[in-house]
Structure formats: structure tokens, C-alpha cells
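Q: For a teaching session next week I want to show students how multiple molecules come together into a single three-dimensional assembly. I've collected the sequence lines for a complex. Could you give me the predicted C-alpha cells for the whole thing so I can convert them for display?
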Amino acid sequence: MKKTFLTAALVVVMTATGFAQSSVVKVGIILGFTGPIESLTQDMAPGAELAFKEASDSGLFLGGKRIKVIRGDSTCVDAAAATAVAERLVTSDKVVAIMGAACSGATTAVVNNVSVPNGVVTISPSATSPALSTIKDKGYFFRTAPSDARQGQVLAQVAIDRGIKKIAVTFTNNDYGKGLADSFVSGFKKLGGKVTINAPHEDGKADYSAEVGALAASGADELAVLGYVDQGGLGIIQASLDAGAFKRFVVGDGMIGQSIIDRIGDDMIGTFGTLPGGVSEGRAKFVQMATKAGINGEGPYVTTSYDAAALIVLAMQAAGSTNRSAIRSKVMMVANAPGEKILPGELAKGLKILKAGGDVDYVGASSVEFNDVGEVFGTYREMEIKKSFQLIQVR
Amino acid sequence: MTEGPEFLNALILLSNYVVLPAITYGSQLALGALGVTLVFGILRFSNFAHGDTMAFGAMVTILFTWWFQSLGISFGQLPTALLALPVGILFTIVILLLTDRLVYRYYRRIKSKPITFVMLSVGVMFVMTGLVRFIIGPKDQNFADGARFIFKARDFKKWAGLSEGLALRSSQLITIVVTMLLVAALFWFLQKTKAGKSMRAYSDNEELALLSGINPDTVVRVTWILTAVLATTAGLLYSLDKSFKPFVFFQLLLPIFASAIVGGLGKPIGAIAGGFIIAFSEVCLTYVYRKFLIYLLPESMEPETLVQLLSTEYKFAVSFIILVLVLLIAPTGLFKGKVV
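A: Of course. Below is the structure for the complete assembly, covering every listed component.
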């Protein structure tokens, strides 16, 4: 009697849990909530949760299921901590997909040690290292932030389009400058241009006349400055103008800021460069939505966080299940054309189309379009100094 | 397509990127090295605090420049900083005399070894470094005003009809003129005045000078006053021509000492020669000669490479190498100075 009762109770409990499990889908958000980018993740995580909530509230997600978010701290700098937290989310919490990680190092660790072995779709909103393009991910890893290698190519294209054929390049002597310069130089050469010299400069010096002398004597009439606006980049430009070596400059995102115009003045007119992030209807719409929810939608990587989460939702809907590998096969389909374009706030529409067996092309807040390795091409704004930095076009 | 005679173009190119910058930089180094050599010749120690004395002087001058600018006082086409320079010098004199009173005097009385003084000056350097950063901060400061150029490269090209331009900045001209005036005044002071003569006597033979009735306290005081004038002017000219950033003056210590030692420590004329030698070596060795040679050589011999002896990152290594070579081969320097 007692035994039967116990069994009955057990059955009831199990059914209850079973029922609960079937109406709730767990996803993980792994970001560096502590560590060097903790201030950024303050808005990134709520940005992603906005998409999950939107899907849950629509009542259309997998026949009315709700999404439960489990946050994990990757610390950004500690690969072991990132791996451990991902392991916990995947094996004990049994999340069906991961939005994360934030930093390139942590992301690499999570993808190699957890996502690929367990077969969990992982979409990073902010890992930008070029090395992640070639990671052996078996198709489980995607990112909604463009690789750093991309900007150099876009900038090279911009320069070529403006008729520059010969250029001298100087970059700030660190990983950012080196990476950007490498991709710019290779892109520029591929497009038929000639790079006469590719020299680093150190930040924090008072005198850059020797550097400029070398750059000018290389025989180029144009100079690409891939540095920082308040550091050596400014010194190089000032010294170039002083010696009459170069008249206008091709600059990377680190050089775009009002302060350079304030310091140098009208001589800067004509200088142009690129800045990540497009200007689109989707972005404007998202910022509005985010502001209403008390999130700073303009912040770095907030749009890409929302988009990463939205892609997970749509891929699950397209797969019609929470099966991990079924999700993997659908990410590309929902992200890319063809299909009905989906903007932020329109997830319900997308879920309806997918339920009916249609196809969607998620555009989102950051104009998502994946290449064949599952990372966005990235949009860049081409800027030029007229009186201040002005947008020329989006690339 | 080049316009004008190739030879003239090559000459202008070299003047614009090598000769003019090197003369300006050399003048700044020479003024700095004069201060070092003066202290070494008379007080008999290497003053490591000299770089930060320059920073201190330049800082005070900049603070007063800002104040003058806010009052609407200007110096016409010339930078307001030149007006503030005497005030900067005054403050630097006060701080140098104060350090001498508080730090060096005691050890001079007990006749400590030169190395003690060198270590003392390192301590003074750290205090001065902290003081400057505490007052004005570690960042770049912007204080320049007045006309930036005497003539621009673009205007020169139009005027001369050449394809190469020559730019002359007002700060370059100011540096060269002020250096010439200051050096002339210094040599006149050392050669012709009684105080200057007693300083030289004290430098040549301390005991003999004391016996002839020279007051050592006066000699020391005058030395510090001259050092303050030289250091503040050098620091301001460097900041005016390049930019003011406290850390830079610590880095400048190496080329300044190299200049003083190359010329011969304790010899004012050597400090000036040394300043220009170091400046020209730094600029000449890191310059890219490709364009220069293209102008001069026939087309068939045009160089494919950059023709650069040293990459510009190694600029500071040049003065270091020269310093080591001089100390190894001719420790007394060009003008037979004292041995460290």
C-alpha cells in the first residue's frame, strides 16, 4: 500500500517535471559579467533577453513554449572558467543553445571544449578575432560581430574606390594596429594597389618627424594611419601636415573622433575612414525598443546580442524542436536570404511564417547576413571629414 | 613627373626632412646638454634630474601661458609661451636653489663622493617627476598659439616651382634663434664677467679658486641659476616644437647625456657640438633615402628598396650606441672633457 502510494507520488512528480520541461526551453547566455568588459555586458545580456522574452510572449514559439535564460560568467580572460561554466550549462542545466561568449579567448575555449564535443549551437555577439574564422567548429559556431580582418578589406576598397593606387601605411604597434594593417595591406594589394611602406609607430612620443620622413620618402602620396586618435596617430598626422608630406589621410576606426578635428582644424578636411556598424531601419527600431526596456541600445555589441538571441529562437522554430543538431542546420537558413525580411520586434511574424513552413531572412538590428563560415560580413560606415566626420555611405 | 632641376629637388627634400628637423632637435639637445655639462663641470656630478627639471620649467611656463591666454594677453604672431618663459625660469630657479639647500649642500659640506651626488640627483628626479605629474598630469598638453608656419610646403612649391616643398615652422625658427642668443649670452657671461670667470676658475681647480678668494656659495648659486635658465628654455622649446608630455623628458635624458659626453663633459662648446652630432645621427640613420636617390641617380640605377639604414623605432638606440662607443674609444669626448 505504502509502496503503491510512493510509486504513485513519484509518477505524479515525474509527470509534473516532464510537463514543466516540455513547456520551458532553456538557453544559456555566457558573457564576461565580471572582468575587463563587465561594463559592456550590462547591456548586452538584457539586449539578448529582450529577444527571448519577445519570443516567449508571442505565444507562437514552438507551440506556446517559454524560454528560460540561464546566465553564466565567462570572465572574459580566464579560459578555464569559461569552459567550466559552459560545461555546467550544457551538461547539468541542459541548455539547448548558447548565446556567447563575449571575448575572443573565452569564446575559443567554449567552442573547442564544450560546444563542439557536445554539439551545441553557440552564437557570439562580440568575439572579433580573425582566428575564429578558421576554428574547427563543425558548423556549431556563429558570430554576429564582424571579424577584425574585415575592416581592413573594407577600408582598402574605400581607398581604391577613391582612386588611390599607391599608399604608405603606418599602424600603432599593438595587436589591433598590426591586425588591421595586415588585412588592409593584403586587401589593398589584392585590389591592385601598391603599398610602399608598412611601418609601425609607437604611441606616446612627442616627435614623429622621423617616422613621417620615412613614410614620405617611400614615394607614396597618400598615407593610411591605423592608430589612435589621441595617441601616435595624431602625432603622425600633425607631423605630416607640418612637413607638407601628406595632405589627406585614410584612417581606421581608432582614428575617428571629433578631437582630431578640434586639434588640427581645416587641414583635416578630405580625410576619410571606416567605422563599424551600419545605419539601418532595424538598428533605429531596436534602439527604440531597447530604450523602452531601459537598455542602452546604442552601446557596443548590444544590437548583435539581440540578433544572436533572435537567431537562436528562429532556428529552433524552423527546426520545430529543441534538438541541438536540428537547430544547427537551420541557423544559416533563417539568417540569410531568401525569405521574408524580419526586423527587431517582428519575431512573432517570423515565428508564424516558420511555423507555416515558410522561410525568413533575419535582418535584425545589425543587418545580419552570414558568410559560409557562419560569421557576418559586417557593415561599416564610410566617413569623411567635411566640417566634421560625416557619413558618406554604408558598406 | 618632376618639375625643376632634379638636384635642387633632392636638396630641398633633404632640407625639409633631415637638415631642418635635425638642426631644431640639435639646438634643443644642445641647450639641455649645456645644463648637464655646467653642473658636471662646476658641481662635479651627473645630474639625472635635469630632464625633469626641463619638464618642471616647461610646465610652469605652460601654466602661466594658459593664464595669460585667459587674460587675453598675446604676443602677436609669436607664441604667448615666450612671454611666460621668464616666469617659468624664475620658478625653476627657486626650486633648484631650494633642492640645493635641502639636498646637495649638506653632502657638499661633508665632501661626499661624486657617486653620492649622482644617487641624490636620481632621488631628486623621482620627486620632480612626481611633482610635475601631480600638478599638470601625465597627459599631452596643448598650449601653442600664434602663427604656426613661417611658410608652408605648398606655398614654397608654388614660389620655387619645384616638385618638393620646404616648410618652416615658427617653432623651428624660434628654437634656432633663441638657442643662438642664449648660447652667445652664456659664452659672453662665462668669458667676460667676473662671476663667469670665477666659475671657470672653480671648475678648473677648486682648491686654487678657493685660495684666490672666490666665494664657493656664489659660484654654486650662479650655476644653478644658469642651469634653470637653460633647462626651462630647452624644455619649453622642445614642447613648443613637438609636444609637452612629462614622460618624454625622462626619455630625453639619454640623448642629452650622450650629447654632453660626446662633446666632452664640462665643456660648453662640446655640449653644443654633441647636441648636433646626436641629432643629425638620429635623423640621418633612420631616414629613407629612396626618393632622394631617385632624384640624383639615373633612372637605370633607381633603388627598389627603401634605402633606410635603421627603422625609426630604433631612434633612441642611435644615441645609446654613440654613447657606448665614445665611452669605450675616447672617454674624454671631442673637446677633451672630464672623464666620468
